[in-house]
Design a protein that fits this description.
The protein is mainly β. Helix content is 9%, strand content 46%. It folds into 4 domains: 3-58 and 108-170, Immunoglobulin-like; 175-251, Immunoglobulin-like (Sandwich); 262-325, no CATH class; 331-424, Immunoglobulins (Immunoglobulin-like), CATH 2.60.40. The strands form 10 sheets. Strands 27, 28, 31, 32 and 33 form a 5-stranded antiparallel sheet that branches. Strands 6-1-10-9 form a 4-stranded mixed sheet, with no helix packed on it. A 4-stranded antiparallel sheet has the order 5-2-7-8, with no helix packed on it.
Length: 471
């Protein structure tokens, strides 16, 4: 074996050892690259194209150092015996009976970067991606970043900030910073407002922070449309021809839902409060309950106190407390009367009205009647005027005493019951007598007409005349 051949053997053995032991799919290096693009004013620039080129793989060439390759056996063809140095199988530590030995040679060309990643910066002027390089030679840790007209060559592990490789680029001063602050109807910061901004083909979205701020960047001269929504409340703004940085308050008609519950006398009371979409709650010791910055222009509120419920609709136009007077006073029943007609039907009338500082309408009125106070019958009373109610009781037995009570209910379920009243049905009437003539006399209860006295009078006159003549 000559000296040249002996010097080549260790290199070939090392190359074969490396090729057999290195996993085919394992990465030699990997990192996250973050490209930041700002203007000369320090503002992030969105929608900037970014290109990253890096060495992803290497080219592989096969050549033979022993044996003659038969293209008919493998079908790959084109290779011939390449062993100008006369290296034998024994020199490589393999069996002498081997017909041929294949060695892979990896070739790296830094001018032929085959890895390519492209994209654009986001609204914050950032483009971020992960790079994985399968090349196991240190000199290919370099890669190329292209932003605008700048071509920057960097390397794995440089400019690390935390776990990321960060590269900063600067472009022209044609970006403007727009700060929009949403406020409620009282000028207070309004957080968690959904925001959407459209500037030409570019759009951005997000939510306002705890200070009500939503900021974005736009190119100089852009016209942007901004829309905001908070619950069911919305607002839109047009920002034309943005020539400079802009800070703008955006008011939304959002107010607190504030309720105070009081009784008829105006004193606060504790009550359970339920608003759809919110957990149940209760008023405090001052009868107050509120939801800050309610996300709607109106609310239906259900209030319960002592098993009595009131439902109110509140229109929100300010942060002032909306007073709900809880009617706890029963209706007043007065001027109760009855009258019997010729047929014995009793007409019952009464004046019924709700009392208190916050009266409720009368929802129902009834009259209950009985002739023995054991079995009672109820009849509805009907309105007969502003506060007048009436009912007709049917005919009862002659001489019977009829007892009746009036009940009234207002719209807040307050119930009133009147004292007990009564009336007597007339006794049974005597049969009708025949008509009595205006001529005649009643003798011992017997009517005798004057015509029966004419013969008697004539006889008496005749006797008197006879007596006078005979004398």
């Amino acid at each position: 074996m000559n000296a040249k051949t002996a010097a080549s053997v260790p290199f070939l053995l090392a190359l074969l050892f490396t090729l057999f032991l290195m996993p085919a799919a394992s990465a030699y290096w990997a990192e996250t690259i973050q490209v930041k693009v700002i203007s000369s004013s320090g503002y992030p620039v969105p929608d900037v194209p970014v290109t990253i080129k890096y060495q992803y793989q290497v080219s592989v060439e096969n050549f033979y150092i022993s044996g003659t390759f038969d293209t008919g056996e493998s079908g790959t063809g084109g290779y011939v015996d390449e062993n100008p140095e006369g290296i034998t199988a024994a020199d490589l530590g393999v069996k002498e009976t081997a017909t041929h030995i294949i060695i892979e040679k990896k070739v790296v060309d830094l001018d032929l970067l085959d890895g390519l990643v492209q994209g654009k910066t986001n609204a914050d002027g950032i483009f971020e991606t992960g790079l994985i390089d399968y090349v196991d030679f240190g000199e290919v840790k370099e890669y190329l970043i292209i932003v605008g007209n700048e071509h920057r060559r960097t390397a794995f592990g440089e400019n690390m900030q935390g776990t990321k490789h960060v590269e900063l680029f600067m472009v022209g001063d044609n970006v403007r910073r727009i700060v929009l602050r949403t406020v409620d109807g009282s000028g207070r910061s309004l957080a968690n407002v959904s925001a959407f901004v459209q500037c030409g083909a570019n759009n951005q979205s997000g939510s306002t922070d705890k200070y009500g701020i939503f900021a974005f960047y736009a190119f100089t001269g852009s016209t942007c449309g901004a829309s905001f929504s908070f619950g069911s409340i919305t607002r839109s703004e047009t920002l034309p021809n943005l020539a400079t940085d802009l800070v703008l308050n955006v008011p939304l008609q959002v107010y607190d839902l504030a309720i105070q519950v009081v009784d008829d006398a105006g004193f606060p009371i504790t009550a359970n409060v339920l608003v759809v979409g919110f957990p149940p709650n209760a008023t405090d010791e001052n009868g107050r309950f509120s939801i800050r910055q309610f996300p709607a222009s109106s609310a239906q509120v259900s209030i319960t106190h002592n098993n009595r419920q009131q439902v109110v609709q509140v229109e929100l136009t300010s942060n002032d407390f909306f007073t709900v007077a809880f009617d706890l006073t029963e209706p007043a029943i007065s001027q109760v009367s009855h009258a019997l007609d010729a047929n014995g039907i009793a007409r019952i009338t009464a004046t019924i009205s709700d009392r208190g500082a916050h009266p409720s309408p009368i929802s129902a009125a009834y009259v209950r009647y009985s002739t023995n106070k054991r079995k009672w019958t109820s009849l509805p009373m009907h309105p007969a005027g502003a506060y007048e109610f009436e009912a007709a009781l049917p005919v009862q037995e002659p001489g019977a005493e009829v007892f009746y009570i009036i009940e009234a209910l207002d719209a807040r379920a307050n119930k009133a019951i009147s004292p007990e009243y009564s009336y007597l049905m007339p006794e049974k009437a005597a049969p009708p007598q025949p008509p009595i003539s205006s001529t005649g006399l009643n003798i011992f209860g017997i009517h005798v007409d004057f015509i029966f006295f004419v013969p008697i009078v004539l006889v008496l006159l005749a006797i008197i005349i006879y007596k006078l003549r005979s004398s």
